[in-house]
Every structure is written in structure tokens, then in C-alpha cells.
Amino acid sequence: MSVVTTEKQQNVLVIISNNPPVNALGAAVRQGLVDGIDQALSDDEIEAVVIRCDGRTFFAGADITEFGKPMQGPNLADALDRLEASSKPVVAAIHGTALGGGCEVALACHYRVAVPSAKIGLPEVKLGLIPGAAGTQRLPRVVGAEAALPMVVIGNPISAAKAQAIGLVDKIVGEDSLGEDAIAFAREQIGKAPPRSSEGTANEDGVKNPAIFDEFRQKNGRKLRGFEAPEAAIQAVKAAGELSYADGVQKERELFMKLMAGTQAAAMQHYFFAERAANKIDGIDPKIDLIPIKKVGILGAGTMGGGIGMNFLSAGIPVTIVELKEEALDRGVGVIRKNYENTAKRGRMTEQQVEDAMSILTPSLSYDDLADCDLVIEAVFENMDVKKEVFTKLDGIVKQGAILASNTSYLNIDEIAAVTKRPEYVLGLHFFSPANVMKLLEIVRGAKTADDVLMTAMKLSKKIGKVAAVSGVCPGFIGNRMLSPRQEQANLMIMEGANYWEIDDVLLEFGFPMGPFQMSDLAGVDIGWHRDPERIETLRDALCAVGRWGQKVGKGFYDYDEARQRTPSDEVKQIIAEFAAKASKEQREISKDEIRERLLYPMVNEGAKILEEGMAQRASDIDVVWINGYGWPLYTGGPMFWADTVGLDKVVAGLKKHGLPVAQLLQEKADAEGKFNG
Fold it and tell me: How many domains does the chain have?
């Protein structure tokens, strides 16, 4: 059966795509659209055309299975030009999402109607690209450059209501009557000259006020830093006002091809597939029966426990949160409410949604109230003895068949599971702080964790809006294990003569949101400090002894002003110099290149060890962890993909040059001129 069919509704030809799951614009669909238009134009009885899709969505974008392969059939740009040139009015009937190529199809139609729940967008920038079928040229001509910029440059979809407000959608129709309403709308346009997007004049706003482009750059500078595609997108939208349509399309093509040939597009497309691959667990049937999670228990109402609880509350899953003392419980519940209220103030929630979330939260001072939970997550002090005591107690209270999870960031899950009578129902769920914001969830698979327990956690992670990656049991799992050698090298270099702010700046230039010493200040230099100012054994001890505890007190490695802007501290320079002298560390100039290599290459090496040991299923899972949990820049694809890009032979040579160990797997792949990915 053809993926595109047509049906005559008296004088209207309806072109219908049925290409599950998302009506991707593959070769057969593109050819079907061209054939459908040709059929309409050759039939004198047909006076108008409607394009709609069966299934759950309008065209949701390109066919990702075609990425990197030779183009088959008509390309999308040519197909859309044929569509737009129709002398008979063509109406796009939009439901679900019209994304990327789907939005470009809608733009090539003369009119657009949509159901209220529809979303429309051009997200190509999230793959390191810009629209490539004249989307950057048609859209500004329909809605104006100012309205087009966020759609093309940021790439977030907009609602049907917003699309109507800016002129992208002509009419919002019934949620359950899209087909009929679209046909009726099409009949109303018969006899009118079809308005073609390529001939629109709304783009003149960018000519009359060229400052809108720089203003947009300035407003979104932090969000766009380091990415190449957003700047190309701005240039393309600007060209829509400065050039003829044909020249603008040519400009779009040039910008598109340059991005396509670059490393950022390859990196971001790698990540696109990596995130999806992370959901697949080798050796487990994806259709395995899952454990229903209808109620979640959280042990600990502190910053982590409260943040973890919010993920489930926001997803409509009732939560019972337990603390040992009333004061701590009240404080924790208060923080949850305050966080929700702040979100509402920013317009991201309604007051009703706040109350709905709080209404399914049950605060408690008793472990017994966790008895009927389907999943219990402990978020207590990071100490093995404490964890074992907690799990022993939970095992005796929580119903059989329920999952017991630890939020530990470092400790051995197998050792924790061993104190229970249900080790197959125990795993790690390592949330990242703040837990209600950070996307990453490291799921730690114990030696005895059952397959259905693991897959239940994976499915649940998606429901609560997390990106999950599975780790085996090892110190620090994937993320913190790789962080450790980076921090070690950072500490060594400041003793050898590198300035700590230079180390931070190298990582900032690479694309991280902050460097290791900024991060230490933000977290608190005093975390884990023994609290004895007379006992000074490390640099951290020395800083804490003089009250340099981090941002919270206005001074750590850096001095901070009221706006939390950092300035290197003369006091800290002196403390470091004294420590280096006591350790007889020779001081020298350390180049930016050496700093970068000594910070990043050992991380890649540790990633190779993780793969050697089977602690991660695939290299791309490591990339998922570091992009979502630690701020590794997306446009590099993650540490393992970045290493592939640099060249594994170069990484090995750099490690050896600095006297650092080389993992066997890394050496083998470098010798074979291989890669971690592909």
C-alpha cells in the first residue's frame, strides 16, 4: 500500500500521508506529494487541495533513516516548489506536530489550518543545521523576521494559538473535525488568487529595523554561545529581507551545506541518536512486562529528596516523603512549594497546577507510611553504614514486589542490596542537583537487579522528563568516575604553576558552563571538611580554615561581589604558593593546550576503562551522561565522540607526553585507527 493516497471529496482533492510513526518525509512521501499535486492540476473537477496526515501527527520532520545516504526521489525543496506553484488553493491540515520539513510543507501550502493542540516548529538548529527546504525564506515572508527568529534560531515549537497570532496559521479548527473543517475552509478559497509564502512581504520588518538581529543575538547570547547553527540561522532570516526569494534560497543552501559538512552537525546528530540508543538495554526484551508505579516514597526531605519528589509530583504520581524530625520535614515541604510557586511566577505553571502537585504530596515522620509504595528512593547522608541501616529497615516495611532505590552518587549498590532480602529489586537512581531541573538520571544496575526492575526505571525516567543512562556498579559510576581524573589534574596543575582561573577559563572556552574551581565554590569548598581549622593537610583545609567556604560566604577560590561575579583572590594565590613551596613543586608556565589536554584526555581514558570493564553499554551512553549531567558542550557530541573527532592517536600521544596512563582499549583503538563511536 502506498504511504500517500488521495481521495476526491467532490471538488476538493485530499492528499493523505500514512507513514507511521510520525509521517516522516521520506522519498515515498515526497513523491506522493508531487503526484498528488499533479493529479489535482490535471483534473478539471478539482478546484482545491487539502494535505493532511493519518496517525498521531502531521509531518514531524525528515526521515532520519535517510541521514548520510544519497537522496532518492524528489528532494523536499523541489517537491515544495511544485506544491506552492499550484494554481489551485492548497490547504495544510495540521494536527500533532508540524516540525522541520513538516513546517516547511505547511509553509509551501497556500493556507494553514490547525487543531488547538497542534505544535509547529523548525527544530533543525538542535541538530546543528538550519532548515534546508526554504523554511528560512518562506517563514519570515509570512510572519516577519522578528517572529521568525526564535522559531529558526532557538528551534522550540510554538502552539497553534501562537502560530495564529503571528500569522502562520490562518484558522484554528475543531480538535475532532480537522478533515471536514479543512475541506470547508479550502472551498472558501476557491476562485481566489493563492497567496504564496515566497511572495510574502512581512519580512520587511527586518529591513526597516535591522537592529532586531543584533538585539536578538544579545538577548540570547548565553543560550547560543559556542553553537554555529544559530548564527547561520540569523544570517538566513536576515537574507530573507535583503535578497530576492531565489537569492535567499541560494544563501540558505550555502549556509546549510557548510553546516552539514562541519563537525558540530555531526556531533549533534550523534547525540540525537545516542539519547535514543541509551534507552535500549542489551539482552532485555523491550516489551518485557513492567512494574506499575502508582505511588512513590522518598526518604529524606532535604535539597535532593525534595527535588527528586518534585519530578514525580509534576508527572502526577503521588509521593510520600519521610523525614525524622518535624522541623526538617516542614522545611522540605516548604521548599517544594516555594519552588513550584517560583515556577508559576515565571509563567511555566498555573496556580492550579501548583495546588494539584502539592495535593498529592504526603509528608510523614514514619517509615511505616512507605509500606504501600511501589518505589522508594532514599536520599539520605552519603555514608555506607547509614545507607545499609536505611535499606535494612525499608526491606522490612515496604511491600514485597516494590523497588528500593538509592540516590547514591558513589557508593556500591551491590553492597547496599546485600542487606535486603530482595536484591533483585534494588538499584541506583542517581539524580543530579538540582534534581527537579537537571535532565540526567544515572540508573545503576546491580549484579542482581532484575530485568523488569531496570526497564521499569528506564520507562519511568522518561515519564518524569529525565534522560537516563545505565551504569554498572563501580566507584562514581560513569559521570563522577570520569570527573575524578579531571579534578586530580586540575589540582596538580595549580601546584605546578598554572593559575586556577586559567584552568577554569580553558574549560569555559571549550564550552563548559564553569570550570572545576568555580564549581567547587558553587557547591561549597567546605563540603566534607573536617571542621578543624588547626588541622591543615590540604589546600582545601587551608581555604576553609580562613573562612573561604565558597560562593555562599562571598569567597572561596574566588572573591565574589553582590552580583556573584568572580575575581581571582590574592589571598588564595598566596596560600597556593605556600603549599607549592612546602611540597617542593617547581613552578613553570603551563600553556592552554597543556591544560586542555591534561583536563580532557584523562577523562576520555577513564571512559575507555569504563567500556573495558562493561560499566557502560556503549560509548555514546557516556556522551549522554556528560552532556546532560555535567555541561559537556552538546556541539562536541560528548567526551567519547569528541575524542573520535580529535583522533584517538592524538589522545594517546597527549597522555603519554604528560606521563599519564593509557587504557588498553584506547590504545587498541588508536593503533587500529578506530573510533569509540561507529
Answer: 3
Which one from 47, 104, 146, 323 is the annotated catalytic residue? Answer: 104
Strand, coil or helix: 402: coil
What does the alpha-carbon distance between residue 568 and residue 562 come to, in Å, rounded to a whole number? 15
121 close to 157: Cβ distance less than 8 angstroms? yes
The answer to whether 267 and 128 are in contact (CB under 8 A) is yes
Asked whether residue 531 falls in the same domain as residue 470, the answer is no
pLDDT tens digits, residue range 502-561?
999 999 999 999 999 999 999 899 988 999 999 999 999 999 999 999 999 999 999 999
Whether the Cβ atoms of residue 39 and residue 16 lie closer than 8 Å to each other: no
Omega of the bond prior to 602 within 30 degrees of 0, cis?
A: no
Whether 611 is covered by a domain: the verdict is no
Cα→Cα distances 230→138, 246, 291, 454, 643, Å: 18, 22, 42, 38, 24
Which residues does 280 contact at the CB level (< 8 Å), separation at least 6? 286
Question: 112 pLDDT exceeds 80?
Answer: yes
Q: Which domain holds residue 322?
A: 296-475
Asked if pLDDT for residue 1 goes beyond 70, the answer is no
Looking at this protein, which amino acid is placed at residue 353? Answer: Q
> DSSP state, 171?
E
Cβ-based neighbour number of residue 316 at 10 Å: 10
Angle, helix 263-277 to helix 619-629, in steps of 10 degrees: 100
* DSSP per-residue string spanning 584-652: TPPP----HHHHHHHHHHHHHHHHHHHHHTTSSSSHHHHHHHHHHHS---GGGT-HHHHHHHH-HHHHH
CATH of the domain at 561: 1.10.1040.10
Pair 87, 41: CB distance under 8 Å: yes
* Contacts of 517 by beta carbon, 8 Å cutoff, 6+ apart: 490, 500, 501, 503, 504, 556, 557, 558
Q: Answer yes or no: do 179 and 231 share one domain.
A: yes
Considering only CA atoms, which of 316, 317, 321, 318 is closest in space to residue 305? 321
Query: Under 8 Å CB-to-CB from 581, ≥6 apart: which residues?
Result: none
Residue 184: name the closest of 59, 48, 367 by CA.
48
CATH of the domain at 456: 3.40.50.720
**What's the pLDDT band for 63 if we cut at 50, 70, 90?**
confident
d(CA 276, CA 253) in angstroms, rounded, equals: 29
What residue has cell string 482533492? 13
Report residue 309 as a C-alpha cell.
519528589
- Strands (E) in 479-597, as ranges, are 558-560, 566-568
Specify whether the backbone of 335 is left (phi greater than 0), alpha (psi in -120 to 50) or beta. Answer: alpha
Dump the DSSP string for 53-88.
Answer: E-TT-S--S--GGGTTS---SS-HHHHHHHHHT-SS
Which of the residues 47, 84, 124, 252 is marked catalytic?
124
Whether 204 is catalytic is: no
Q: Is 254 a catalytic residue?
A: no
635, burial (CB in 10 Å: exposed 0-12, middle 13-18, buried 19+): buried
Q: What is the CATH number of the domain that holds 149?
A: 3.90.226.10
Whether 68 has a pLDDT exceeding 90, the answer reads no
Q: Please indicate, yes or no, if residue 648 is contained in any of the structural domains.
A: no
Do residues 562 and 533 touch, judged by C-beta distance below 8 A? no
Q: Which of 575, 598, 422, 579 is nearest to 516 (CA)?
A: 598
Q: What's the pLDDT at 71?
A: 81
Same domain, 303 and 244: no
